[in-house]
Protein 1
Amino acid sequence: MNRFTYLYLLLAVFFIHACSTTNTTEQDDQDREVAEQDQRPYQEEIDSLMAEMTLEEKIGQLNLLSSGFTETGPTLQDDYQDMIADGNMGGIFNGFTVEHTRDLQRIAVEETRLGIPLIFGFDVIHGYQTIFPVPIGETATWEPDLIKEASQVAAEEAAAAGVHWTFAPMLDVSPDPRWGRIVESAGEDPLLNEIFGEARVKGFEGDDLKDLNTILSTAKHYIAYSEAEGGRDYNTVDISERMLREIHLPPFRAALDAGAGTVMTAFNEYDGVPATGNQFLFNDILRGELGFEGFVVTDYTAIPEMIEHGVAADEADAAELAMNANVDMDMQSINYVEELPGLIEEGKISEDQVDQAVERILRKKFKLGLFEDPYRYSDYDREEETIMRDDFLELALDISKRSIVLMKNEDQTLPLSREEVNDIAVIGPLADNQYDLLGSWSAAGEYEDNITLLEGIRNNVEDNTNITYAEGTELEFEDYTTDGIEEAVEIAEDADVAVVAVGEGRHMSGEAASRVSLDLPGAQEELLEAVHETGTPVVMVLMSGRPMTINWAEENVPAIMNTWFLGTKAGEAIAQVMFGDYNPAGKLPVTYPRHTGMSPYYYNHKNTGRPMDPDERYTSKYIDEENSPLYPFGFGLSYTTFGYDNIQLGSDEISKDGTVEVSVEVTNTGDYTGEEVVQLYTRKMVASVTRPVKELRDFEKIELDPGETRTVTFDLDAEQLYYYDKDMEYGIEPGEVRVFVGTNSEEVLEDSFTVR
Ligand code: BGC
């Protein structure tokens, strides 16, 4: 090749390369534009609106305040009215009903210079007015599709009553039953929180936020709030980055992938920095790694709370921290309105930062269609037609039945026979109690709508069945009386069966409801013991928002139904299960410890160097209590029984991106048709970091007729087993993986395979 030929070739290669580069670059630009348009719609509208906004008006958009509450509903306070009129308000929460939201929206639209509509937020957690079981109870169905429907219903009702935005789902993986907010979670397992979080987000937001039956959702509380030391709400959290990424982040990732439009900051600190000012959590992980484009709202007054945390000297300092962490909207503290103008003047915060936050909030308002018609969610006719529709109530009843977990059923005490049981004593402070059935957070739920257990039983027996009732004692930690126990004993003595409803009041779990004891409050156990003493068979109906140490009952009472707080249709659902119209199939999404002192207590713990051995003192255990759970994670009985047999693996070796088929035969070995949640767990036996003794990987709910056998097959991808190794690399190291399949986390068949 001579010099010229070489030069020619070189030029040709350069030319071809240059052409293709130009083409790809153009294509890339176009793709980017389309992607941006997808992710950042309404940019032109937002830009032109913002061009007209003063700094004060912009900061106003970052302000979210609660409208006041009275027993009868939301009230409008004068100063809020003025703040809205002055353009100092971007949104209102706890404002609901068409009438109330129209009132407020009118001020924003008609009395402010630019007429920017307000966004209305509300804690629609397990229903708006048709109240479904509390989230931990909904999770006990192990039926995410059904809970997606429940969220759809909640969204439809809320959206018909002027609400645009719910502060749900809560995604806090909750290992500690002392922490009251465990009731709002999907329990202690990351996968359940992931799957149910995703289902709830899809239910709330639907396919298009503009649809009038959808609302904006909030992934909360970001992040690790449930790890509060001692289970004490708002307390310090100190966890590793590994735990953050493996346990707490996956549900948020899933919720954002499902389309959650907003994220709420948590009250707690992470690695010494309160979440609300934590740049690592928000800038690096949420916006950086997870690519979140929606807006971040603080939890209630979380910005100034950074002063108490001791990382901000004053309100201005706190505002600066929050803004620098890209926290967009300030809930309830008016801190941004008061502090941002000064911070900008001093050059500590740029107007550009404020612009970004405003843009993110306005984009959601556009997406909700509020600029087209600010009153579109507040329609009197739609509110009237939608709230508590018959089909919604039916769904609530169905989900309530499916949430019930049968904890014990000695000698087939249940189901009760309508023919044979002629005299029922209904006893306990939760037996004829409408109020507590609502559970924690009940939005616009009205307790008068709830069907109590007593009413449910009355509705479900033959006319000649005799039903008596005694409260027995009160639902109090202190100041309770035992005077009513005698009456309860008297009616139990004459009855064929005594149904005793005990547990917690609705405010004994939930926010700021941490407990040092998981025992039944007050004299309820005394009541239970006295009724049991009569010799009449007892069916205990437990209502609570958390695991409870009901050891005495487990040992002595023949039948126990765990019913959480089931909401509007509670009593009807419990009665139908009690009389066998529905065969219970709920499974626990949390472990029940034997003693409060064992908390936090969860099935997916590590093995330690000295795993618990009841016969060896120097192993990891307590010396004054049995160390096994009272009820394990995934536990729940049925009126029928199931047998597991013949676990099979498709191969005994797979690659790091391979899949192994796991199958098992499940047989209905009892007398009733029933549903069973078949659960798949794994354990990585050796890794460069310690791994949990079991991790839930998949599950399937099946229905079998008596005598029927079904082979259940799971495709287990190696990718589902990935973790962070000692260098924080995400993947899987070679070695043995043990596989467990069974009816709960303890009763399992096992096998193993190797990852190459
Ligand atoms: C809770 C949040 C809730 C907010 C608004 C806070 O106290 O932590 O979960 O969304 O109040 O009601």
Protein 2
Amino acid sequence: MPADPQELLEAAERVMRRAHVPYSRFPVGAALLGGAGAIHVGANVENAAYPQSQCAEASAIGAMVAAGETRIAAVAVVAERVEHCPPCGGCRQRLAEFAAPDTPVYLGRPGAVPRVTTVGELLPLAFSADALPGGGAGAE
Ligand code: THU
């Protein structure tokens, strides 16, 4: 039973409240609907050594893979300090590793109407395992 967008956005908002953001004060939460129907969440985790910080999407992907899931069916990203928080360039590539181009991405802000886009719209002409010799060694 796939989660509805609202459920996914609420999960992203809940985990956003757990973000570790003492430097940017810019909390972000991400929720991924996995192919098997479970929701996997993550928040941004910053570090005093700034480049070691991790985006919410990367945290959620880590949780998803740790749970044994490798397919993303839908994405929600929630932030409260901007109208919509589109995934950064690196996270678009991370999402594209596990999601088809038509995978919906819901960009939310608490109390606001979400903006809907897709992984393919966020990252056209994506580099993928298809470009690697043999489709990428060991790629599933
Ligand atoms: N951030 C995310 O977690 N996801 C994004 O897609 C954009 C940016 C975080 C990184 C950093 O902790 C804070 O937002 C400000 O850039």
